[in-house]
Amino acid sequence: MDYSALNEHLTNAQVDQFNKKYPLVGSLSRNYVIGYFVLGFMILVFSAGVISAATGESEGGMTSIIALSVFIVLSAGGIVLTALGAKKQRRQAARIQLFAERNRLQYIRSQEAPKYTGMYFNEGSDRIILNALRSQTTSPTYEVGTIQYSVGSGKDKHTYQKGYVRIGLERNLPQIVLDASSNNGKIFGANLTNLPVDYKLSQRMSLEGDFDKHFSLYAPKGYERDALYVFTPDLMALLIDNASAYDAEIIDDQLFIYNAGKPFDLSNEHELARIFEMIRLVGSKASSQTSYYADANVGDRSQNVVATQGQRLKKRISVFTIIIIVIAMAITFGPSIFELIDSIRR
Hints:
The chain is an alpha+beta fold. It folds into two domains: 4-102, no CATH class; 105-313, no CATH class. Helix content is 45%, strand content 23%. The protein is built from nine helices and eleven strands. It has helices at residues 12-21, 26-55, 61-102, 211-214, 224-230, 233-243, 269-290, 308-311, 319-345, and strands at 105-112, 125-135, 142-151, 158-180, 185-187, 190-192, 198-199, 204-205, 215-218, 247-259, 315-316. The protein is flat. 26% of the residues are buried. The model is unreliable at 26-32 and 80-85 (pLDDT under 50).
């Protein structure tokens, strides 16, 4: 790989030319501007109230002038910061596109998310991929980028961005999920996965060595031997050494590796080199390890399919959801229960 483009000086004309060919997703910058105006307006109202209370003024005069000045300064500052941030994003994206050209990769600035079956590609709404690099000639095929999606609506709408690596496999396989321990949380001692879905614990497998310290592995019931066929000790060692901070999923004929905490920074030479090394080591081994896989429940290898019971893991209600439900019920019915207990005691 030639990484020189990621550190190359680009003229404003080159960046402008890139921006015309690959326009930015405008909603992000627009939301920042709106956010700064809302923040400025809130501070305007708050400042006016504080100053009025402190000086005894109830209207007009110096209070309005000071509050308006605060609003103008904050709003102008927010707009300037947003513009500078957008300019930096354009320059970084232009470098990534130049890197793609020099290394015979396809660059995707933004597009509607493909119909991938990976878990994050079926979350929420308004799904798009951003700053993605896709192989065109190599085997196995691969893609690295950001999946963005929204959850909720109106003022409760939240947008999320997750980094992903997608590696193509030759054969269809049962869904197998690796939940990395390093990016999970705990509440009241309960281990909370950061994955968007929870899977039934009866599908969790224990593997040899230190693998269980780094990952929780889930495979459909009846497909434990298939999971062991795929995750041999050498592949497990590669995952621990190169991808222990990430979650992974095999589904159909794809291997996904997710950076659930944040997107991958494809403008950073060291991070991008580490991603390509992970693809080379983990992806190549996973591809070769699964190239002769066949589901014994099907009986006909030429069909390259997995039986229905192995295609998808069974889901469960998450621990976090249960905790929220319990808290909500306690808030709603708690007072009535205490009144009932008190009346019984009397």
